[in-house]
Amino acid sequence: MRVLVVDDLAINRVLTMSLLRTVGVEAHGVGSAASALEALRRETYHAILVDFYLGDMNGDELTRRIRKTYGVGHRIVGLSGDSDADTYDAAMKAGMDAFLCKPATIEALSEVLDPAGPQIVGC
Question: Which domain holds residue 110?
Fold first, then answer.
């Protein structure tokens, strides 16, 4: 499985990628929404983990752009330290498949990356 991790904080991005790699996931990371859109033009990913509050664009807007351009071919999972109902609702309305609260565990990441997995984990 190939996963794109989109997080503007390098420590969060590196930690998430490291966790995914421990279970054999091919994880790639970018630090902005613009970089994510460019990566999607060049590469194919099975899933995209999107920080909800990016510096250049919120995760819900990035998700809408991905869905408009690529349809539903990717499982998109929102990540946020903000676990309120408004953030979750915005994520689902934008077209995210699941939502995960930070800090993420490998068990929670594995659950939300499974297409049959839950929509919300760890909040």
Answer: 2-116
